[in-house]
Amino acid sequence: MRIERRLRQPRWLIVAVPAGSLVFAFFASGLVLLATGHDAISSYRKIFDAAFVSKGVLSDTLVAATPLAFTGLAAAAAFRMRLFNIGGEGQLLIGAITAAAAGLYFGGSGGPSAFAIAAMVVAGCAGGAAWALIPGVLRAFFKTNEIITSLMLNYVAAYLLTYLVFNSHSYWRESKGFNAAVFPTSKTLPDSALWPAATVHVRGGIVLPLGAGFALLAAGVLWALYSRTRFGFEAQVLGDSPRAAQYAGMRTRRKILAVMAISGALAGLGGASQDGDFRHTLDADPNGLQRQYYGYAGIVVAALARYNPLAVVLVAFLIGGLQNAGNTLQGVDFPSGLVGVMQGIILFSTLGGELLVRYRIRFGRSRPEAAPAVEPV
User: For the whole model, what pTM was predicted?
Assistant: First the structure.
Protein backbone atom coordinates (compact mmCIF):
# COMPACT_ATOMS: atom_id res chain seq x y z
CA MET A 1 0.00 0.00 0.00
CA ARG A 2 1.33 3.43 -0.91
CA ILE A 3 -0.05 6.97 -0.84
CA GLU A 4 0.36 9.15 -3.94
CA ARG A 5 -0.52 12.79 -4.50
CA ARG A 6 -3.20 13.31 -7.13
CA LEU A 7 -2.04 15.26 -10.15
CA ARG A 8 -5.65 16.20 -10.95
CA GLN A 9 -8.79 16.07 -8.86
CA PRO A 10 -11.95 14.69 -10.52
CA ARG A 11 -15.01 16.86 -10.04
CA TRP A 12 -17.12 13.98 -8.74
CA LEU A 13 -14.56 13.35 -6.01
CA ILE A 14 -14.84 16.92 -4.71
CA VAL A 15 -18.55 16.31 -4.07
CA ALA A 16 -18.44 12.63 -3.13
CA VAL A 17 -15.74 12.88 -0.45
CA PRO A 18 -17.45 15.57 1.70
CA ALA A 19 -20.76 13.72 1.38
CA GLY A 20 -19.10 10.46 2.36
CA SER A 21 -17.34 12.17 5.25
CA LEU A 22 -20.68 13.47 6.51
CA VAL A 23 -22.25 10.00 6.27
CA PHE A 24 -19.31 8.50 8.17
CA ALA A 25 -19.56 11.23 10.82
CA PHE A 26 -23.24 10.47 11.45
CA PHE A 27 -22.44 6.76 11.60
CA ALA A 28 -19.71 7.38 14.18
CA SER A 29 -22.00 9.74 16.09
CA GLY A 30 -24.61 6.98 16.13
CA LEU A 31 -22.09 4.72 17.83
CA VAL A 32 -21.52 7.43 20.43
CA LEU A 33 -25.27 7.70 21.00
CA LEU A 34 -25.52 3.94 21.42
CA ALA A 35 -22.59 3.92 23.83
CA THR A 36 -24.31 6.57 25.97
CA GLY A 37 -27.59 4.66 26.11
CA HIS A 38 -29.51 6.49 23.36
CA ASP A 39 -31.28 4.96 20.40
CA ALA A 40 -29.49 6.37 17.36
CA ILE A 41 -32.43 6.32 14.91
CA SER A 42 -34.82 7.86 17.42
CA SER A 43 -32.27 10.50 18.43
CA TYR A 44 -31.60 11.52 14.83
CA ARG A 45 -35.34 11.78 14.20
CA LYS A 46 -35.73 14.04 17.23
CA ILE A 47 -32.79 16.18 16.12
CA PHE A 48 -34.16 16.58 12.60
CA ASP A 49 -37.64 17.47 13.85
CA ALA A 50 -36.30 19.97 16.39
CA ALA A 51 -34.06 21.60 13.79
CA PHE A 52 -36.13 21.81 10.61
CA VAL A 53 -39.59 20.23 10.79
CA SER A 54 -41.43 21.31 13.93
CA LYS A 55 -43.53 24.44 13.83
CA GLY A 56 -41.54 27.65 14.29
CA VAL A 57 -38.11 26.01 14.64
CA LEU A 58 -36.70 27.36 11.36
CA SER A 59 -36.54 30.85 12.86
CA ASP A 60 -34.46 29.56 15.76
CA THR A 61 -32.26 27.65 13.33
CA LEU A 62 -31.59 30.85 11.39
CA VAL A 63 -30.67 32.59 14.64
CA ALA A 64 -28.02 29.94 15.28
CA ALA A 65 -26.91 29.73 11.64
CA THR A 66 -26.33 33.44 10.97
CA PRO A 67 -23.20 33.91 13.14
CA LEU A 68 -21.92 30.51 11.97
CA ALA A 69 -22.18 31.73 8.38
CA PHE A 70 -20.07 34.80 9.15
CA THR A 71 -17.36 32.94 11.06
CA GLY A 72 -17.40 30.19 8.43
CA LEU A 73 -16.87 32.78 5.69
CA ALA A 74 -14.09 34.34 7.76
CA ALA A 75 -12.32 30.98 8.06
CA ALA A 76 -12.85 30.18 4.37
CA ALA A 77 -11.44 33.55 3.28
CA ALA A 78 -8.21 32.98 5.18
CA PHE A 79 -7.81 29.23 4.74
CA ARG A 80 -7.98 29.45 0.94
CA MET A 81 -4.64 31.26 1.08
CA ARG A 82 -3.31 28.79 3.68
CA LEU A 83 -3.61 31.45 6.39
CA PHE A 84 -4.99 29.61 9.40
CA ASN A 85 -6.98 32.30 11.14
CA ILE A 86 -8.27 30.62 14.32
CA GLY A 87 -9.26 33.97 15.81
CA GLY A 88 -12.77 34.25 14.41
CA GLU A 89 -14.21 34.10 17.93
CA GLY A 90 -12.20 37.10 19.13
CA GLN A 91 -12.83 39.06 15.94
CA LEU A 92 -16.56 38.47 16.32
CA LEU A 93 -16.45 39.78 19.91
CA ILE A 94 -14.46 42.87 18.94
CA GLY A 95 -16.88 43.49 16.08
CA ALA A 96 -19.74 43.27 18.56
CA ILE A 97 -18.01 45.81 20.84
CA THR A 98 -17.38 48.37 18.09
CA ALA A 99 -20.80 47.84 16.51
CA ALA A 100 -22.52 48.34 19.86
CA ALA A 101 -20.62 51.59 20.36
CA ALA A 102 -21.75 52.82 16.93
CA GLY A 103 -25.33 51.76 17.59
CA LEU A 104 -25.45 53.51 20.96
CA TYR A 105 -23.91 56.70 19.58
CA PHE A 106 -25.74 57.08 16.29
CA GLY A 107 -28.94 55.36 17.37
CA GLY A 108 -29.30 57.58 20.40
CA SER A 109 -29.00 60.74 18.32
CA GLY A 110 -32.46 60.25 16.87
CA GLY A 111 -31.20 59.81 13.32
CA PRO A 112 -32.70 57.45 10.77
CA SER A 113 -32.35 53.77 11.49
CA ALA A 114 -30.71 53.06 8.12
CA PHE A 115 -27.83 55.36 9.04
CA ALA A 116 -27.40 53.73 12.47
CA ILE A 117 -27.45 50.24 10.94
CA ALA A 118 -24.90 51.25 8.31
CA ALA A 119 -22.68 52.70 11.04
CA MET A 120 -22.90 49.43 12.99
CA VAL A 121 -21.98 47.42 9.89
CA VAL A 122 -18.95 49.61 9.17
CA ALA A 123 -17.85 49.65 12.81
CA GLY A 124 -18.23 45.89 13.17
CA CYS A 125 -16.21 45.20 10.02
CA ALA A 126 -13.55 47.72 11.05
CA GLY A 127 -13.22 46.27 14.55
CA GLY A 128 -12.93 42.68 13.32
CA ALA A 129 -10.46 43.65 10.60
CA ALA A 130 -8.25 45.61 13.01
CA TRP A 131 -8.18 42.67 15.45
CA ALA A 132 -7.29 40.23 12.65
CA LEU A 133 -4.51 42.50 11.41
CA ILE A 134 -2.57 41.95 14.64
CA PRO A 135 -1.69 38.32 13.79
CA GLY A 136 -1.56 39.38 10.13
CA VAL A 137 1.20 41.91 10.76
CA LEU A 138 3.09 39.46 12.95
CA ARG A 139 2.91 36.82 10.20
CA ALA A 140 3.77 39.17 7.33
CA PHE A 141 6.72 40.99 8.91
CA PHE A 142 7.99 38.68 11.65
CA LYS A 143 7.06 35.19 10.33
CA THR A 144 5.07 34.48 13.50
CA ASN A 145 2.69 31.54 13.41
CA GLU A 146 -0.78 33.03 12.95
CA ILE A 147 -2.45 29.97 14.50
CA ILE A 148 -0.99 30.72 17.92
CA THR A 149 -1.39 34.50 17.84
CA SER A 150 -4.95 34.51 16.53
CA LEU A 151 -5.97 31.80 19.01
CA MET A 152 -4.50 33.65 22.00
CA LEU A 153 -6.22 36.87 20.94
CA ASN A 154 -9.58 35.13 21.37
CA TYR A 155 -9.01 35.08 25.13
CA VAL A 156 -7.86 38.71 25.12
CA ALA A 157 -11.05 39.77 23.34
CA ALA A 158 -13.24 37.77 25.76
CA TYR A 159 -11.58 39.31 28.81
CA LEU A 160 -11.80 42.78 27.24
CA LEU A 161 -15.54 42.32 26.75
CA THR A 162 -15.95 41.19 30.34
CA TYR A 163 -13.91 44.15 31.59
CA LEU A 164 -15.95 46.71 29.64
CA VAL A 165 -19.27 45.47 31.04
CA PHE A 166 -18.51 44.16 34.53
CA ASN A 167 -15.25 45.65 35.77
CA SER A 168 -15.28 49.24 34.57
CA HIS A 169 -17.59 52.22 34.09
CA SER A 170 -17.20 52.18 30.35
CA TYR A 171 -19.38 53.65 27.63
CA TRP A 172 -21.03 50.25 27.12
CA ARG A 173 -22.06 49.68 30.75
CA GLU A 174 -25.48 50.70 32.00
CA SER A 175 -25.04 53.35 34.70
CA LYS A 176 -28.67 54.23 35.38
CA GLY A 177 -31.05 52.41 37.66
CA PHE A 178 -31.02 51.20 41.24
CA ASN A 179 -29.39 47.83 40.49
CA ALA A 180 -26.78 49.12 38.04
CA ALA A 181 -23.99 48.96 40.62
CA VAL A 182 -25.02 45.59 42.06
CA PHE A 183 -25.96 43.78 38.85
CA PRO A 184 -23.89 45.36 36.06
CA THR A 185 -25.28 45.04 32.56
CA SER A 186 -24.59 46.62 29.21
CA LYS A 187 -26.74 49.32 27.68
CA THR A 188 -29.67 48.31 25.50
CA LEU A 189 -29.50 49.53 21.93
CA PRO A 190 -32.05 52.21 21.00
CA ASP A 191 -34.89 51.27 18.69
CA SER A 192 -33.32 53.07 15.74
CA ALA A 193 -30.28 50.76 15.97
CA LEU A 194 -32.25 47.50 15.91
CA TRP A 195 -32.01 45.58 12.65
CA PRO A 196 -35.31 44.83 10.91
CA ALA A 197 -36.43 41.31 9.98
CA ALA A 198 -38.75 39.93 7.34
CA THR A 199 -41.42 37.34 8.10
CA VAL A 200 -42.38 34.56 5.70
CA HIS A 201 -45.76 33.08 6.58
CA VAL A 202 -44.82 29.42 6.12
CA ARG A 203 -45.07 26.72 8.81
CA GLY A 204 -46.11 29.13 11.50
CA GLY A 205 -43.95 31.98 10.22
CA ILE A 206 -40.23 32.12 9.49
CA VAL A 207 -38.35 35.22 10.64
CA LEU A 208 -35.53 36.15 8.26
CA PRO A 209 -33.00 38.37 10.08
CA LEU A 210 -31.20 41.12 8.20
CA GLY A 211 -27.87 39.56 9.16
CA ALA A 212 -28.77 36.43 7.20
CA GLY A 213 -29.20 38.60 4.12
CA PHE A 214 -25.83 40.22 4.76
CA ALA A 215 -24.28 36.74 5.05
CA LEU A 216 -25.71 35.70 1.67
CA LEU A 217 -24.44 38.93 0.12
CA ALA A 218 -21.00 38.50 1.69
CA ALA A 219 -20.81 34.91 0.41
CA GLY A 220 -21.55 36.05 -3.14
CA VAL A 221 -19.00 38.86 -3.00
CA LEU A 222 -16.33 36.59 -1.52
CA TRP A 223 -16.96 33.92 -4.17
CA ALA A 224 -16.63 36.51 -6.96
CA LEU A 225 -13.50 37.96 -5.34
CA TYR A 226 -11.69 34.62 -5.23
CA SER A 227 -12.89 33.15 -8.50
CA ARG A 228 -13.25 36.14 -10.82
CA THR A 229 -10.53 38.64 -9.89
CA ARG A 230 -6.77 38.91 -10.05
CA PHE A 231 -6.69 39.28 -6.28
CA GLY A 232 -8.26 35.86 -5.85
CA PHE A 233 -5.92 34.26 -8.37
CA GLU A 234 -2.84 35.65 -6.64
CA ALA A 235 -4.16 34.57 -3.24
CA GLN A 236 -4.66 31.05 -4.60
CA VAL A 237 -1.14 30.96 -6.03
CA LEU A 238 0.34 32.24 -2.77
CA GLY A 239 -1.49 29.50 -0.89
CA ASP A 240 -0.44 26.71 -3.25
CA SER A 241 3.16 27.76 -3.95
CA PRO A 242 4.66 30.75 -2.11
CA ARG A 243 7.96 30.37 -3.96
CA ALA A 244 6.27 30.53 -7.35
CA ALA A 245 4.33 33.60 -6.23
CA GLN A 246 7.51 35.36 -5.12
CA TYR A 247 9.21 34.43 -8.39
CA ALA A 248 6.27 35.97 -10.28
CA GLY A 249 6.66 39.21 -8.33
CA MET A 250 3.51 38.96 -6.19
CA ARG A 251 3.56 41.05 -3.04
CA THR A 252 3.24 38.48 -0.31
CA ARG A 253 3.04 40.82 2.67
CA ARG A 254 0.32 42.95 1.14
CA LYS A 255 -1.77 39.89 0.33
CA ILE A 256 -1.39 38.47 3.83
CA LEU A 257 -2.60 41.72 5.38
CA ALA A 258 -5.47 42.06 2.90
CA VAL A 259 -6.72 38.49 3.36
CA MET A 260 -6.51 38.67 7.16
CA ALA A 261 -8.38 42.00 7.12
CA ILE A 262 -11.14 40.52 4.93
CA SER A 263 -11.39 37.49 7.20
CA GLY A 264 -11.60 39.61 10.33
CA ALA A 265 -14.13 41.99 8.76
CA LEU A 266 -16.47 39.09 8.00
CA ALA A 267 -16.25 37.83 11.58
CA GLY A 268 -16.73 41.37 12.90
CA LEU A 269 -19.86 41.74 10.78
CA GLY A 270 -21.15 38.63 12.51
CA GLY A 271 -20.64 40.39 15.85
CA ALA A 272 -22.58 43.41 14.58
CA SER A 273 -25.38 41.08 13.52
CA GLN A 274 -25.47 39.58 17.00
CA ASP A 275 -26.00 43.05 18.47
CA GLY A 276 -28.53 44.36 15.97
CA ASP A 277 -30.46 41.21 15.04
CA PHE A 278 -30.77 39.12 18.18
CA ARG A 279 -29.36 40.37 21.47
CA HIS A 280 -29.96 44.14 21.13
CA THR A 281 -27.19 44.72 23.64
CA LEU A 282 -23.51 43.95 24.13
CA ASP A 283 -23.83 40.50 25.67
CA ALA A 284 -21.06 39.50 28.07
CA ASP A 285 -20.73 36.36 30.14
CA PRO A 286 -18.37 36.88 33.09
CA ASN A 287 -17.50 33.19 33.39
CA GLY A 288 -17.72 32.18 29.74
CA LEU A 289 -20.19 29.41 30.61
CA GLN A 290 -23.14 30.62 28.52
CA ARG A 291 -21.18 32.01 25.58
CA GLN A 292 -21.69 30.33 22.24
CA TYR A 293 -18.30 29.75 20.63
CA TYR A 294 -19.24 30.56 17.07
CA GLY A 295 -15.66 31.17 15.93
CA TYR A 296 -14.56 27.59 16.53
CA ALA A 297 -17.74 26.12 15.07
CA GLY A 298 -17.18 28.31 12.00
CA ILE A 299 -14.01 26.34 11.29
CA VAL A 300 -16.11 23.17 11.15
CA VAL A 301 -18.50 24.92 8.75
CA ALA A 302 -15.68 26.12 6.47
CA ALA A 303 -13.95 22.73 6.43
CA LEU A 304 -17.16 20.87 5.61
CA ALA A 305 -17.89 23.35 2.81
CA ARG A 306 -14.30 22.90 1.48
CA TYR A 307 -13.83 26.66 1.82
CA ASN A 308 -16.40 27.44 -0.86
CA PRO A 309 -18.19 30.64 0.25
CA LEU A 310 -21.53 29.66 -1.28
CA ALA A 311 -21.42 26.21 0.31
CA VAL A 312 -20.52 27.80 3.66
CA VAL A 313 -24.00 29.35 3.91
CA LEU A 314 -25.71 26.00 3.32
CA VAL A 315 -23.48 24.14 5.77
CA ALA A 316 -23.98 26.89 8.37
CA PHE A 317 -27.72 26.33 8.08
CA LEU A 318 -27.28 22.60 8.69
CA ILE A 319 -24.89 23.03 11.64
CA GLY A 320 -27.12 25.79 13.01
CA GLY A 321 -30.01 23.35 12.95
CA LEU A 322 -27.89 20.84 14.85
CA GLN A 323 -27.06 23.43 17.51
CA ASN A 324 -30.66 24.56 17.75
CA ALA A 325 -31.81 20.97 18.18
CA GLY A 326 -29.24 20.45 20.94
CA ASN A 327 -30.54 23.48 22.82
CA THR A 328 -34.15 22.42 22.31
CA LEU A 329 -33.66 18.79 23.35
CA GLN A 330 -31.31 19.57 26.22
CA GLY A 331 -32.25 17.55 29.27
CA VAL A 332 -31.57 14.38 31.18
CA ASP A 333 -32.41 12.19 28.19
CA PHE A 334 -30.32 14.24 25.74
CA PRO A 335 -27.33 16.16 27.16
CA SER A 336 -26.41 19.18 25.05
CA GLY A 337 -22.76 18.09 25.10
CA LEU A 338 -23.64 15.35 22.61
CA VAL A 339 -24.08 18.02 19.94
CA GLY A 340 -20.54 19.26 20.56
CA VAL A 341 -19.26 15.70 20.26
CA MET A 342 -21.08 15.32 16.95
CA GLN A 343 -19.57 18.57 15.67
CA GLY A 344 -16.10 17.35 16.58
CA ILE A 345 -16.66 14.04 14.79
CA ILE A 346 -17.90 15.91 11.71
CA LEU A 347 -14.76 18.08 11.73
CA PHE A 348 -12.34 15.16 12.02
CA SER A 349 -14.22 13.18 9.38
CA THR A 350 -14.11 16.13 7.01
CA LEU A 351 -10.40 16.71 7.53
CA GLY A 352 -9.74 13.01 7.03
CA GLY A 353 -11.78 13.02 3.84
CA GLU A 354 -9.77 15.98 2.58
CA LEU A 355 -6.75 13.67 2.37
CA LEU A 356 -8.64 11.48 -0.09
CA VAL A 357 -9.22 14.49 -2.31
CA ARG A 358 -5.54 15.41 -2.40
CA TYR A 359 -4.04 11.91 -2.27
CA ARG A 360 -4.86 8.44 -3.54
CA ILE A 361 -4.18 5.06 -1.96
CA ARG A 362 -2.83 2.32 -4.21
CA PHE A 363 -2.72 -1.35 -3.32
CA GLY A 364 -0.52 -3.86 -5.06
CA ARG A 365 2.23 -6.36 -4.67
CA SER A 366 5.74 -5.02 -4.67
CA ARG A 367 7.78 -6.40 -7.50
CA PRO A 368 10.95 -8.20 -6.50
CA GLU A 369 14.06 -6.45 -7.60
CA ALA A 370 15.86 -8.16 -10.46
CA ALA A 371 19.22 -9.68 -9.59
CA PRO A 372 22.15 -7.85 -11.20
CA ALA A 373 23.58 -9.60 -14.22
CA VAL A 374 26.92 -11.33 -13.69
CA GLU A 375 29.42 -10.83 -16.42
CA PRO A 376 31.30 -13.97 -17.54
CA VAL A 377 34.94 -14.19 -16.51
Answer: 0.89
